[in-house]
Amino acid sequence: MFVNIRTIFEYANNFFIFEKSVIFAQTSDDVMIESTDTTIRKRSLAEEMAVRLQEQIAQGRFEVGGKLPTESELMKIFGVGRSTVREAVKILANMGLLKVQQGAGTFVESRTARNESMERCMQRADIGDLEEVRRILEVAIVERAAQRRTQADIEKIGTHLARRGAAAAAGRLNDCIAADVDFHVALSEATHNEILHELYRAASVHLQKRLEHIYTDTGCLLASQSTHERLLRNVVAQEPRKALETIAVILQEP
Length: 254
Hints:
Elements: H1 5-17, E1 23-26, E2 32-35, E3 40-42, H2 45-58, H3 71-78, H4 82-94, E4 98-101, E5 105-108, H5 116-124, H6 127-148, H7 151-170, H8 173-189, H9 194-214, H10 219-223, H11 225-236, H12 240-252
Antiparallel strand pairs: 1-2, 2-3, 4-5
Helix pairs in contact: 1-6, 2-4, 3-4, 6-8, 6-9, 6-11, 6-12, 7-8, 7-11, 8-9, 11-12
């Protein structure tokens, strides 16, 4: 099976650069509402925090290269819970503003968001459109990951897959979903194609939200663990054709 990467990038580019007109209106309860020509939606707490934190970064309150306050401190500053802080940080990291270093903290990477228009488009995107883009990217990713993966890639992918399996077996739904998304993001990184990786990484935030709405327990995720393990074996063995066959099965699983 041959996948034309040019077609994928052209499709993704056309999808991501499409922008509807956006109007911001202040409601009587001081909640910001984002209105497009077809939908009206309230921002989540995480999105609102991300906007405010982005403004502070742009204004120079936090220097590029500097470390952000801890999660607990950010919770106090913005008056939100830990999960909201983590989601807001993930949004800004995806936009290229922040960089999370495991065990060290979160650092300011840039004052300018490299994917801001893409992020806004994805926030408004129809679930069907997002799913279509995901399927296109997944196919391109596994084929190239199987051809180009390194030992370091294999170890990272395997670590996330083990986390996924352990969380699924223990019934920890949110942990399992996070590990599943990390597994697929690591596969995209193994393509060693920066554009392909960035496209998938940008989509992953919204894919995770979608999965959190779809699943009520880890049953289906546990059932699909063996298929994901087969995909990893295909990538390790550098078998792109078999990897394509396996991802086709995964994309059909509930």
